[in-house]
Amino acid sequence: MAAPVAIAAVIAVNANSHTPKVKTLPPATGTAASGLRQVATAMERTTGYRFAGTVESGPETVTVTGEFAAPDRLHETLSAAGGQPIERLVIGSQQYQKAGTAWQAVSGTAATDPRATFGALAAATAVTARPDGYAFTLAGTAAQQLVSGAGVVGTTVSGTVQVRDGAIVDISYKSSGSPATSVHFAYAGVGTAPAITAPPTTAA
User: Fold this and answer.
1) How far is CA 189 from the centre of its chain?
2) Residue 51 in this model has a pLDDT that exceeds 50
3) Pick the CATH number of 7-202 from 1.10.150.20, 3.40.50.300, 2.50.20.20, 1.20.1090.10
4) Torsion over CA of 56, 62, 66 and 68, rounded to 10 degrees?
């Protein structure tokens, strides 16, 4: 929001809720674009990773840490200034949230797949190579996959990724417009599936 990590889910909470019509724009072509798509696809297909990052939208900043195990296991903790940390687990269609020291099963909309972030990168509308990775710009629907409300009226999302050993280890991007949304995440243990299991729960 990966979201990300559930990057998209985090951004949706902090970004403009207005969802205007967006356009689908053709992805970039060329060697750099192909290279970014290759590492983005590798991240979509990896068995798992750990993540840590921040999402800033207007005056709000959310810190996110956690781990992901393919295909559908996510453990994350979200923290914002002045509020209690929110810890949650997603295992398939089941979602759990920690209240105090006890876990509870919760219902709601399906959790955002953190791999959607990398799917959006594969649709970048402009890409240039850097010594440590790539710089990218997204517009239209691709931009909206990373930042809710982006991709219309000239709004874009621009950023960079750092690549090491064929995997994305760092991503940073920012939307244009106001309020701008800034996102930064680091990934570790890419290719290793963390053990994420259902917790003992109490009645809600």
Assistant:
1) 17
2) yes
3) 2.50.20.20
4) -50
